[in-house]
TrEMBL record:
Residues covered by the Protein kinase domain: 46-308
EC primary class: transferase
Protein name: G protein-coupled receptor kinase
Similarity comment text for this entry: Belongs to the protein kinase superfamily. AGC Ser/Thr protein kinase family. GPRK subfamily.
AGC-kinase C-terminal domain boundaries: 309-374
GO terms for MF: ATP binding; rhodopsin kinase activity
EC number: 2.7.11.-
PANTHER family, per database record: G PROTEIN-COUPLED RECEPTOR KINASE/RIBOSOMAL PROTEIN S6 KINASE (PTHR24355), RHODOPSIN KINASE GRK7-B (PTHR24355:SF29)
Gene Ontology cellular-component annotations: cytoplasm
GO biological process, one term: signal transduction
Active site: 171 (proton acceptor)
SMART domains tied to this protein: S_TKc
């Protein structure tokens, strides 16, 4: 028998009230937990840090807080490499943006500090791996539709939070979406993110081939529209295990992918594309940004699309929606780890007073030694642990022992 609409309205109000109360409690808990995390950090011996992956400026290590035993990922950036390759500004921007964000759908920065040779970002450890691994390397290629919808909803929340702070992500792709131990996803790697005051636009080319919007390729002025385009590409990829304008393992020049992006329409040949999915992707992939979902001046909201009809966003934002998949706690979900070559310390690069001033600005707190902020990882504490943020580590069983 149909439920009375007045009862349904009342239930909706009650549901939102419960969700909002839980949200406020979660925010307070997050701030309290952050203070605890920052008080538990100690100075490590760098030789004890286990390297999980390497990038252009440094490596990512698994680390452990001495007193709490909490595991983190530490992104270590070589100071001399940063200076030689002109990466100081990007490193500082990433840190400043991570400082500003406060969303369960964006990876949390626990601390930023410097050592004599490195700048370090300590972030949540995401044991579920990245979406790219789940799409291509875990069972049959592509994801089940319930996972596609769930992850897309959380990504939308993360993007909307960034946009509310006038931050453009500019690197939305499955590689940068990480899953935590509960199966919920977070946006990571904000190295290309930029903060733009309201009313301002930019035309800088940035991003990854296959995910860059037409306005980026044409170097037209843009704001947040580029993130919605990239999300459309990501939703397509989660379903079809390929990009909309580049097939799986297709050998093709970047220039051809860019041409297709500018001129071609996406094809929906995979059997799992249903009508709501095709529609939301089509609307995200409008060539003209003014017609793109999320970009209309009348404030169209992607969360209201039929694709998300089964998602209660109030409950989702406070963790009350059960994830469709949860990682096993004794596995790391990622590709095989290879031997990493040491990153050059760039001994020929001299650091001057201007550099030291920048390094101090990067650090969250006192890095002089009065407050010791680094973390400890020992081979006695853990055999292999967690997911790296630059590159792809191994899918390995991990063995943890009690920290002493």
């Amino acid at each position: 028998m149909p439920q009375d609409t007045s009862d349904m309205d009342a239930l909706g109000v009650l549901d939102n009230l419960v969700a909002n109360t839980a949200y406020l409690n979660a925010q307070q808990t997050d701030r309290s937990e952050l203070r605890k995390r920052r008080s538990s950090l100690i100075l490590p011996k760098p030789k004890n840090l286990r390297i999980l992956g390497k990038g252009g400026f440094g490596e990512v290590c698994a680390v452990q807080a001495k007193y709490s035993g909490q595991m983190y990922a530490c992104k270590k950036l070589h100071k001399r490499c940063l200076k030689k390759k002109g990466g100081e500004r990007l490193a500082l921007l990433e840190k400043q943006i991570l400082d500003k964000v406060n969303s369960p759908f964006i990876v949390n920065l626990a601390y930023a500090f410097e050592t004599e040779t490195h700048l370090c970002l300590v972030m949540d450890l995401m044991i579920g791996g990245d979406l790219k691994f789940h799409i291509y390397d875990l069972g049959a290629r592509g994801l089940q539709m319930d996972r596609v919808v769930y992850y897309s909803a959380q990504i939308v929340c993360g993007i909307l939070h960034l946009h509310s702070l006038d931050i453009i992500y500019r690197d939305m792709k499955p590689d940068n979406v990480l899953l935590d131990g509960k199966g919920q996803c977070c946006l990571s790697d904000l190295g290309l993110a930029v903060e733009l005051p309201k009313g301002k636009t930019m035309c800088q080319k940035a991003g990854t081939t296959g995910y860059m919007a037409p306005e980026i390729l044409k170097q037209d002025y843009y704001r947040t529209s580029v993130d919605w385009w990239a999300l459309g590409c990501t939703v397509y990829e989660m379903v079809a295990a390929r990009l909309p304008f580049k097939d799986f393992r297709e050998k093709v020049q970047n220039s051809e992918v860019n041409r297709r992006t500018l001129e071609d329409a996406p094809k929906f040949e995979h059997k799992n594309f249903n009508e709501p999915t095709k529609d939301i992707i089509t609307r995200f992939l409008k060539k003209k940004m003014d017609y793109r979902l999320g970009c209309s001046r009348n404030g169209d909201d992607p969360r209201k699309h039929a694709f998300f009809k089964d998602i209660n966003f109030h409950r989702l934002e406070v963790g009350l929606v059960e994830p469709p998949w949860v990682p096993k706690s004794n596995l790391v979900y990622a590709k095989d780890m290879v031997e990493f070559k040491d990153i050059s310390e760039e001994e020929d690069v001299a650091l001057d007073a201007k550099d030291q001033k920048f390094f101090k600005e990067f650090s969250t707190g006192d890095s002089s030694g009065a407050i010791l902020m680094t973390l400890l990882l020992s081979s006695q504490t853990t055999d292999v642990i967690c997911h790296q943020l630059l590159g792809s580590p191994a899918q390995l069983k991990i063995t943890c022992t009690n920290h002493k």
